[in-house]
Specification:
alpha+beta, Beta-Lactamase, Alpha-Beta Plaits, 7-stranded mixed beta sheet, 5-stranded antiparallel beta sheet, 15 strands
């Protein structure tokens, strides 16, 4: 018995099980399909990907008994499974498994992993119900992080009503209404890009920093409620512009925003640099609308932009009990922040490292000619800050104009 290759599992030979498996996979559900003997004959891509920590689809020992040694050994190598996971599943499904074993508990002992044998004597066979549900704990980081799951187990029957197998489906304990709201306001493409960086790695990327100028004075002038509404509108506008440009939304710190445009998702260094510039321009163009909806003048809502290139960034996703966000570490991130702080007056300052990544066609699309641009060291700008003079004085930057008619 060899593990299945890390592509979509081959469909079961039984036509009804194959039809069920294909439908579950197309629906994007977390599910196993088992045959009459409780052997795993299919595992959906989404469940395999989740068991692989969102990094890869785990290999599956197809044909192994769900509670046998071959499957349990494989599952315990996944970050989502522990021995307690298997024991909770066996406690819930064991009465069905026992009822379906012609040889009763003695036959079951031959199929079940030794780590579960002590549970058999506590099982009582159940009648052949259509479905059962139970609650369990999911786990990540090899049991270090636990979360609640609901599990639905269903009989699979053919046209004659004969039982041919079993479905095991998993959902988070968070209600579908809550998940629906999160999915409705989210972007599927961005979710996919976040999964791509589930494992932190070195990733070249363009970096965008933006910050609201004069925010302290504006916060004093507006009521707290109105200032909060303004910041929420700015955050939504920033995220939309970044996502529309194919970027990854980074952290929101107060009235600022950070974003990353990866080479591996953009397709090239030039495309990533172009996307970064396009996102900054789109966000700048959205500010009059944000100001108008907030009852403010255009000059009240001004953002500074700092754009830089990160050749050696360490980019990854940090997920905790309270949130999930993309972040990056590296000197270039700090340098981008210093560039942004020097862009007073609502300017967009871009580093030479970023601009010179642009290919001729991308530069032309942005209305730029990199060969004609001149640069000034950050420490020589009239608007330089003490931190910029201390940390990044020699970085050459230029001011990017907004695209005509943008």
């Amino acid at each position: 018995m060899s593990p299945d290759e890390p592509e979509t599992c081959r469909l079961p030979e039984n036509a009804v099980l194959a039809e069920t498996a294909e439908a579950l996979n197309r629906a994007g559900l977390w599910a196993y399909v088992l045959d009459r003997e409780y052997r795993v004959v299919y595992m959906t891509d989404e469940l395999r990907r989740s068991n692989g920590g969102l990094i890869e689809m785990v290999r599956v020992p197809l044909g192994a008994h769900l509670f046998g040694t071959d499957f349990l050994d494989a599952a315990l190598g996944w970050p989502t499974w522990t021995l307690d996971t298997a024991r909770r599943m066996f406690a819930a499904m064991g009465p069905w498994v026992l009822a379906d074993a012609p040889g009763g508990s003695e036959q079951l002992r031959e199929s079940v992993d030794p780590r579960l044998l002590d549970m058999i004597d506590r099982l009582a066979p159940t009648d052949r119900a259509a479905a059962l549900a139970y609650k369990t704990d999911g786990s990540a980081m090899r049991g270090k992080v636990l979360y609640d799951l609901n599990v639905l187990v269903e009989r699979i029957r053919d046209a004659s009503g004969r039982t041919v197998g079993t479905n095991v489906l998993f959902t988070t304990a968070v209600g579908m209404s809550t998940i629906g709201v999160a999915a409705a306001i989210g972007d599927l493409g961005h979710f996919g890009r976040m999964q791509l960086v589930a494992r932190a790695e070195r990733r070249p990327a363009a970096v965008l920093f933006a910050d609201l100028e004069g925010s302290s004075a504006l916060a004093r002038r507006l009521s707290t409620a109105n200032y909060f509404t303004l910041i929420r509108r700015l955050a939504r506008a920033a995220d939309k512009c970044v996502i529309d440009a194919g970027g990854l939304v980074g952290r929101h710190a107060g009235d600022g925003a950070v974003a990353f445009f990866l080479v591996e998702t953009a397709g090239s260094e030039s495309a990533a640099a172009r996307a970064c510039i396009e996102a900054s321009r789109a966000l700048g163009a959205s500010l009059p609308g944000v100001a108008a909806r907030s009852g403010l003048q255009v000059e009240d809502v001004v953002l500074r932009f700092g754009l830089h290139w990160g050749s050696n960034l360490h980019v990854g996703n940090i997920s905790t009990l309270g949130r999930s966000e993309v972040t990056a570490l590296g000197d270039e991130v700090n340098q981008a922040a210093r560039i942004e702080a020097c862009a007073r007056g609502g300017r967009t300052l871009a580093s030479k490292d970023l601009v010179e990544r642009l290919a001729t066609t991308d530069a032309a699309a942005l209305g730029l000619d990199p060969h004609q641009i001149t640069y000034t060291s950050l420490g020589e700008l009239a608007t330089t800050t003490e931190k910029a003079r201390r940390d990044a004085p020699t970085i050459p930057v230029c001011e990017l104009p907004p695209l005509t008619g943008y």
